[in-house]
Amino acid sequence: MPSPFQRHTPGPASSSVPMNLRWPAKRPAEILDYSVDWSARLKGEAIRLSVFDVPPGLVKLSETIEKRTTRLWLSGGTDGACYTISNRIRTDRGRSLEQSIDLAVVDD
To answer: Would 16 be classed as within a structural domain?
Structure first.
């Protein structure tokens, strides 16, 4: 089955790709929730589908859609590692948007 998401790679002159967000660091033993607020990019649309891609080493416990925000519950991670998580959404008007987020894991 084909993916419901289509990737768009803008040319070098495009400024439509947002920079990576950065979530507050977590400890390996913590179970925490993190969110992405899509309000500024939705243009009055609603989120119909959300998928978080979590790299190996982190454990995705659950994910939800809350109006214009997507939420991810995570555990795990390796001390000193920095992970990049991707959140892709599909809107009620058929647009696909993606946001990457950096998360550091520290055990101080």
So the answer is: no
